[in-house]
Structure formats: structure tokens, C-alpha cells
Amino acid sequence: MADDYRRSVELERRIFELDNKCATLRTEKPDDDYLQNASSILDKLKTHYRHGGESSSLPKLLQDYTQVVLDITFYEENRLVDQEFPEDTSPFKIQQLLQDLTEPEVLAGRLVPAQEVQSVLGLELLECLYWRRGALLYMYCHTLHQRKQWIKKNKATFLKCLQEGVRYLMRMLQVRNSVKLNDGVVFHDSATANFLAEGIFSDTHLLTMMYIGEMCFWAVKYEDCSMDTTERKEDRLHFRDIGTQILHKYVLACEGPLQGQGWNTVNLERAFRRGDSQKCNCSETSKKQKDLKRKIQEKKALIFRSRFVFWMCVFAENVE
Fold first, then answer.
1. Any idea what DSSP says for residue 282?
2. Which of 179, 99, 84 is CA-nearest to residue 132?
3. Structure confidence at residue 198 (pLDDT)
4. Nearest to 298 by CA among 52, 81, 30
5. How many whole angstroms separate alpha carbon 173 and alpha carbon 123?
6. Are 253 and 293 in contact, with CB atoms under 8 Å apart?
7. CA–CA dist 218, 225 (Å, integer)
8. Which one has a higher pLDDT value, 147 or 320?
9. Where are the alpha helices (DSSP H) in the chain?
10. In the predicted model, what is the mean pLDDT of residues 56-76?
11. Among 38, 61, 122, 219, who pairs with 239 as Cys (CB 3.0-4.6 Å)?
12. Is the whole-model pTM more than 0.70?
């Protein structure tokens, strides 16, 4: 009983802290949909505690708490994008956002130790927590990639952000187990079966592959032997191998069931087979913050079509 009370009090404290934060942010933009949604959920959570709600509902409370975190941090991310990730304040703010998006997973493990985190929060919320952290670092790195002089002075920091972002996005893809086609599951649609077998359960999973591919390309472009040797080599990601593997999956999906659905990569495949990076169309490389904002608001942001051809060509040069 004492443990249950302690856990309930800890979550209650965090809920009221978030309520204060949400109220402060709403003074900036009272009509923001995400802050309004967060405020509505927080009102329900506060009512639960004021009326002495049962601790047996802790998983549901944690799920609601997680949704509030996702809504509030979404508003804060949009503000960072609108400000084009200021050089002086962005590093601290991004770390703060990453910590906020990590806390629901940590709380779930600590407050409900008898259950797996994915059982407490659910697969979709856990996927979203990893996706949001990886996508945030992707957007930040996309902005940094435009600042060539900054990268020259801060290459190690840039590569660290890329590595962390790729790790989060890879974890997102690993939350659900891919469906084995010989598990006695009958599919009437072979295309759906192939998607599930590859671990592609939504358009967000496919977009995650695109993000990983581009981040791996940036890492391959800037990574060299002069990196800080204090980091153990076995802890580093093999960006070229990961990028090649992920982009192969992406190509197969786009040329198969998704052909003609806005994910077409005919030029990419032609260039990949030739391994001729000089003939790739890179006309989309000039798009910047306007595309980033669209990307954070829409899951099916497909603004990197031509640039994606270029990444794959670079990887293709090293594929036998």
C-alpha cells in the first residue's frame, strides 16, 4: 500500500507541474489546438486525484500523462521550427525536449515495475515517443546541415546528434515485431503481408526510413578518422551499412505496393543500379524551414524525393 501511495503521489506531482507549464504556454497562444487538448486531459487527471481515484488505474493515468507530454512538446517543437532553431538556445531546449519525451517511458518503468513499458503505455504511444525524439533531432540536423561554417567548427556535435537521432528512429521501427508469414496468419492481400513482414505498419514507419536514410548520408559525408577517439568504436553506428539496408527496404516498398501512390522512386532505382551519382537530380536541396514546418505537421511529408535519389547513389557506390 505504501508503494502504491508513493507512486500515485509522484505521478500527481508531475501532472500538476505539467498543468502549470501548460497554463503558462497558453498565455502565449490560447487558441493552440494541442495546448487546448493537453489542458483538457490535465483537467480530467486533476479531477481524478481530487476525488481520490483508484491507484489500479495507474496505466491509464500514465497513458493520459504521456499524451499531455506529446501535445505540449509538439507545441514547443513548432516554436523552435518557427524560430529556425536559434544557435544560442537550441542545444539546451532540444535536450530539455528529449528529456521530457523520455520521462513517460521512465515513469512507466518505475511506477509499474511488474509490467513491460510497452504493456503500460501501449505500442502506439511508445512508438510515438521514439518517433518524436528521432524526428526532432532529424529536423535540428537538417537545419544544422545548412550551416556549413557551424559544422566545420562543431562536426563532433553534429555527428553526435545524428547518431542519437538514428538510434531513436531505429528503436521506433523495433517497437513492434514484424509479422512472420508462416505464423499461421492468413492474408488476403499479399502487399499488406509483405509490409508487415518488413516491419512497415504505417506511413510513419516508411517516413522513418527516409529520415534514417538522410541522416546516415549526412553522417557518411562528414564522418572521418579524425573523430574523437575517446568514443569506443563499437559504440558508433555503422551509418553506411544502416543507410544502405534501410533505403533498400524503402525502395522495395515504393516500387512494389506503393507504386503510383506518391512514393515513386523510378529515378532513384535507375541511378542506384548504375551507381552513377553524377547524374542524380538534386533540385530539391534548397528547401529549408518552410518544408520543415510542413514535415512536423504532416506525417506524409514527401519533400525530399529528388534529394533522396542523391543519398542512395552515394550509398550505391559502395555496394557490390
1. -
2. 99
3. 59
4. 81
5. 11
6. no
7. 15
8. 147
9. 2-26, 33-50, 58-82, 90-111, 117-121, 123-145, 148-153, 155-174, 190-197, 203-222, 239-255, 266-274, 289-297, 305-316
10. 92
11. 219
12. yes
Asked if 199 and 176 touch (Cβ cutoff 8 Å), the reply is yes
Per DSSP, the residues of 10-60 read: HHHHHHHHHHHHHHHHHTT-TT-HHHHHHHHHHHHHHHHHHTT--GGGHHH
Residue in the structure block whose three cell numbers are 529556425? 84
Residue found by looking up cell 508531475 in the block: 14
Instruction: Output phi, psi for 87, to 5 deg.
Output: -65, -35
First to last CA, the chain: 62
Do 275 and 317 touch, CB atoms closer than 8 A?
A: yes
pLDDT per residue over 233-270, tens digit each? 556 788 888 888 888 777 777 666 565 556 555 444 44
Contacts of 241 (CB under 8 A, 6+ apart): none
Estimate to the nearest angstrom the gap between the alpha carbon of 267 and the chain centroid.
Answer: 27
Q: Which three cell numbers stand for residue 207?
A: 517516413
- Secondary structure class of 228 (helix, strand, coil): coil
Query: Rounded to whole angstroms, how far apart are CA atoms 55 and 277?
Result: 59
pLDDT > 50? residue 310: no
Q: Are 307 and 284 in contact (CB under 8 A)?
A: yes
Report yes or no: 154 and 189 within 8 Å, Cβ to Cβ.
no
Residue from 239, 202, 207 nearest 223 by CA:
239
Q: Taking each helix axis from N to C terminus, what angle separates 305-316 and 239-255, rounded to the nearest 10 degrees?
A: 130
Which residue type is seen at 165? G
CA distance 263 to 206: 10
CA nearest to 222, candidates 154, 285, 286, 276: 154
